[in-house]
Design goal:
- This protein is of the alpha+beta class and about 450 residues long.
- Strands 13-12-9-10-11-14-21-19 form an eight-stranded antiparallel beta sheet, sandwiched between helices.
- The longest helix has 19 residues, at about 175-195.
- It has helices at about 15-25, 40-45, 65-75, 90-100, 110-115, 120-125, 145-155, 175-195, 250-265, 300-305, 310-320, 395-410, 420-430, 430-435, 440-445, 445-450, and strands at about 5-10, 30-35, 50-55, 80, 105, 155-165, 170-175, 200-205, 210-215, 225-235, 240-245, 270-280, 285-290, 335-340, 345, 350, 355, 360, 365-370, 380, 385-395, 410-415.
- It is about 35% helix and about 25% strand.
- α4 packs antiparallel against α5, α7 (about 145-155) packs across α8 and α12 (about 395-410) packs antiparallel against α13 (about 420-430).
- It has three domains: about 5-105, 3-Layer(aba) Sandwich (Rossmann fold); about 135-205, 2-Layer Sandwich (Dna Ligase, domain 1); about 220-445, D-amino Acid Aminotransferase, Chain A, domain 1, CATH 3.30.470.
- The protein is globular, with a radius of gyration of 21 Å.
- It starts with 5 loop residues before the first strand and ends with a helix.
- α1 (about 15-25) links the parallel β1 and β2 (about 30-35).
- Bound molecules: adenosine-5'-diphosphate.
- Adenosine-5'-diphosphate (ADP) binds near residues 164, 165, 202, 234 and 289.
Length: about 450
Amino acid sequence: MAKIRKILVANRGEIAVRVMRTCKELGIATVAVYSEADRSALHVRTADQAFLVGPPPSRESYLVQERILEAARQSGADAIHPGYGFLSENASFVRACEKAGITFIGPPASAMDAMGEKTRARQNMIKAGVPVVPGSTEPFATHEEARAYAEKIGFPVMLKAAGGGGGKGMRRVDRLEDFDSSWRAAKSEALNAFGNDAVYIEKYLEKPHHVEIQVFADAHGNTIHLNERECSAQRRHQKVVEETPSPILTPELRAKMGEVAVKAAQAVGYVGAGTVEFLVDVNRDFYFLEMNTRLQVEHPVTEWVTGLDLVAWQIKVAEGEKLPLTRAPTPNGHSIEVRIYAEDPGRNFMPSPGRITELRVPGGPYLRDDSGVYPGYTVPNFYDPMISKLSVWAPTRAEAIERAKRALDEYVVKGITANVRYLHAILSHPEFTGGDYDTGFLPRQHEALL
Ligand code: ADP
């Protein structure tokens, strides 16, 4: 392992820009890849060099391993940072990088294999003594078997695609009468979305919290955790607002969950930054949900309260350095992140691509805007519609909420519709300010928040 001099960022949007910013600070040259829809994208303008990798659809550009590797070879990049999404959790891409002699900034392919499919991850976690959400550890061969299993563990149950992700391929079933139609729908949804129709069953947990632990491991056998993020503000099983510390965690529960997350990472030989996701039930028992073997969208809140640059540490770990800490730091203050989407909450959150005619980004103390857009930029309709993440820090949770609301008040975007007012309504809602909001909060308050 040697010093990295040039990094190709195999991604687009805010995360590509964010990674390149750290590269610049570390004196590392940057290479962008882009599709035909992204010729004028911010990440292309931010990079030292840029390579066109194909037409707009991701399958023909950002997901084509050979094109990305070719750009890396041509540019002389010695490492690839995958960001999140796209090829970031693709073990075959990690192997292809290795074969090409290019450092993949992320965990080894074997760790991705162990955590990739949800059923395999559950088996591995049970073996390691990590509590998992009750349910099956294998997909079902027939729908009779599946139905019998659901009856045995009791309704409601959650049907889940083994190869699922991004909040897709999940279906709650409340009654036996609904099982067959839901099962068929889940199978075909899984096949369509993930090319794999394997579906398994979990007990549906009522009113859980989604609390995840950031873990970090170096190549010398040191694994630590960097505390939690509370991600229960979700719409369609996708996160909208995240914060740390979690308002529901006691120091004891934090330490316990941290310890289990480290055990989970060690069990699969993890290296680099990863996130172990848990559901916490009403009794404050916690269960492994899945592990994301990459940098998360919501990593800035962890950076705010730890003072660390997680991307810098991903790069240093890839260079063979040891972690700067030996144990979890005590969280300093409070941080909240909101995800700004080019979407229209008034029209069922329909994506709202188009030209940004005016953009005014908030400023002031302890505020960060991780953005992939600029005034005059046209948001394409081919990709995830998230345009920016605003994150804030303050000494206390109450102050962080006020600061985030103030930031949203200052945020002006014209030409497209964004969910700015919706986010403000979430932060102002008594259930949110009260701190004990579960994953049902946004769906329950849907009307009130519009
Ligand atoms: P994905 O990989 O698609 O993100 P996850 O398994 O991480 O899917 O789950 C996403 C979200 O769906 C969770 O944060 C939670 O809100 C909900 N969820 C998943 N499994 C269950 C379950 N068994 N019971 C209740 N809610 C669940």
